[in-house]
Amino acid sequence: MSSAAFSTCTLHETLRDHELMCNKPSCFPKHSVHFKTNHIYVDPYKSMTWRQPGRLKCRALDIERNRSFLKGDVFQLDDVIEAQQFDRDILSAIFEVAREMEAIEKKSRGNQILKGYLMATLFYEPSTRTRLSFESAMKRLGGEVLTTENAREFSSAAKGETLEDTIRTVEGYSDIIVMRHFESGAAKRAAMTANIPVINAGDGPGQHPTQALLDVYTIEREIGKLDGIKVGLVGDLANGRTVRSLAYLLAKYNDVKIYFVSPDVVKMKDDIKEYLTSKGVEWEESVNLKEVASECDVVYQTRIQKERFGERIDLYEEARGKYIVDSHILSAMQNHAVVMHPLPRLDEIRVEVDGDPRAAYFRQAKNGLFIRMALLKLLLLGW
Questions:
Q1: How far apart are the C-alpha atoms of 302 and 343, rounded to whole Å?
Q2: Which of 208, 257, 320, 322 is catalytic?
Q3: Choosing from 55, 106, 107, 159, which is the catalytic residue?
């Protein structure tokens, strides 16, 4: 995702002679071009062919790369669907808002900036942390929540209703939708249907962008930097939407190296490797977790996801338990390094690790509240 900011001078001199050329069909329901007093913001993720007869035809305006996010400005995204939407500038600005949300959560329990707003949570897969942190985030800011748990079985989806019809109905009751779905790409379908913001809270083995945002936020808070870090992604890399989204975000930083450590049956898919290579990100596959842990700033462990194996329980049993973070792995890690995990965990991180200050996964989960408070505020109110 990127936005373009045009000065009024550039705007007056250029608009008459150019045409805005975009990728999305013109039927997309949400605004992709945001006007301000002295800027026009173009969101290519939500762009559409647009023109104002006799007035606006712009094709290739000079893009000013210095980005500013002024209080009251419209947020550059209509929805949060995938990690590729974000660039470094927006990530840094979101993290600033998250720090403000942390202060609000600690000092001002009665904050009402989202009073009068309703958030609908549609979860077609089980969730504890993600659903509760979103609902807590909304309530911490004075908003209200309409919730469905296990919507796959206890909603009209069980009667055969299409996702699109569900979204059209639910948007009539709420101001923003947070959705987890079992199908990859479902969040994008929901966003294309809805006229209100949609946040992807995980779509099958696809992506989990808000988890990736809180992961990167946690790394910055724990390590103190994002450029020049080494990250080991461990466990179920084939089915883990968290590691996929995290890889996309890490690719936006300089001199990052990523290690992939996983059983053969759940190795990282080629599309992520190819993306990292295209962005100049160094990556390496390894079977030696202890060696990788000694090199890394972050050991990002994940569970082997039994629910993704279907009837192939033999493959699940082959994969589980192969890479475990325990005291032996901790002994190889550097003092400043941290262990992270999107949770829930099974036995892939031993309980003995919990007492080590390098165990960051519960602090990581708490950071999810602040990131999600920030996103709700930005999507509903802007900067």
A1: 7
A2: 208
A3: 159
The active-site residue, picked from 39, 46, 131, 180, is: 180
- Pick the catalytic residue: 46, 121, 130, 244? 130
Q: What is the pLDDT of residue 252?
A: 97
Residue 252 lies in a domain: yes
180 is catalytic: yes
pLDDT at 69: 79
130 noted as active-site residue: yes
The sign one gets for the Cα dihedral 204, 179, 272, 360 is negative
The answer to whether 129 is a known catalytic residue is: yes
Residues 61 and 4 occupy one common structural domain: yes
| In-domain check, residue 383 | no
Asked if 162 is an active-site residue, the reply is no
pLDDT of residue 232: 98
| Shared domain check, 94 and 188 | yes
Count of domains for the chain:
3
**Domain carrying residue 102:** 83-207+369-378
Give per-residue pLDDT as tens, 36-47: 333 444 444 443
Burial call 80-110: b when 16+ CB within 10 Å, e when fewer: bbbbbbbeebbbebbbebbeebbebbeeeee
**CA triplet 379, 118, 190: central angle to 5 degrees?**
60
Do both 46 and 60 map to the same domain?
Answer: yes
Identify whether residues 240 and 268 lie together within a single domain.
Answer: yes
Residue ranges for the chain with pLDDT beneath 50: 1-29, 31-66
Q: Are residues 43 and 152 in the same domain?
A: no
pLDDT digits (tens, 9 = 90+) for 245-294: 999 999 999 999 999 999 888 899 999 999 999 999 999 999 999 999 99
Q: Do residues 25 and 162 both lie within one domain? A: no
Kindly name the residue from 24, 88, 129, 306 that is annotated as catalytic: 129
Q: Quote the pLDDT of residue 42.
A: 44
189 with 231, same domain? no
